[in-house]
Amino acid sequence: MKKLVILILFLLIFPLISAVKFDMKTNFSQGETFIAKVSGDFVKPLTTQDISFYRRHMQTSIIPEIIKMDEDFYIYASLLEKVPDNYSIVIREDSKNFTITDDIADFSIDTGFVVTDKDFSVEVKNLQNHKITISKKFTDNAESIILSAEETKKIEFSVDKIKETSLEIIQLTTANLSYLIPAYIFVAEKISSESGQNQTSENETSGFNPVEITIPKSENITSISTTKTCA
Known about the structure:
This protein has one helix at 2-18, and strands at residues 21-24, 27-30, 33-39, 51-55, 58-60, 64-69, 72-78, 85-91, 94-104, 107-109, 114-116, 120-126, 132-138, 141-147, 152-157, 166-173, 178-185, 188-189, 207-208, 212-217, 220-225. By secondary structure, it is mainly β. A 5-stranded mixed β-sheet has the order 2-9-8-4-5, with no helix packed on it. The protein has a 5-stranded mixed β-sheet with strand order 11-17-16-13-14, with no helix packed on it. Strands 1-3-7-6 form a 4-stranded antiparallel β-sheet, with no helix packed on it.
């Protein structure tokens, strides 16, 4: 009898432990880029095959991209051409509801995360029929970008001021919309000694700081370890 009670308690508690935790908005404008952060005690890493989107109770063709940074998974997907209605994202046995409203988003972006060791860009598209101003902030650099009606533009970002491998946040905002995009920036490690021997110059090969990040390749997730590898 005691073993049966323990088994029942385990079955009741386990789903709470293994449940997916969603960090995302519940309302998206038409054309807005879907971004979510999810976490949980996953026995197997998540892949795009574990993710489905539904409009009411019917599966819909929203195509996700996913990446693991540290202990969290980041997901993004385009909502362009999706009509206003009630939707949900389903990850394995867990789900989170969200709504696409009647409003049209100020702009969309072409990615929901960045992993790089060099300067990069994010493509933005003005979804309005009038000029908009996007405020860009990355590290301690901030500026404004003006887009004409329905204009598409690549916004450039520099990693020169980042001195060590780190997870940074890109902010792209207008008066009505804000995107927070995680960016994992790798910085090459320079090795030096008191005597000055073995010091790497800008033109010499140096190793990355020890770090591990999981990146999906096609339908699989591949673990890439940059511990003491060549830049």
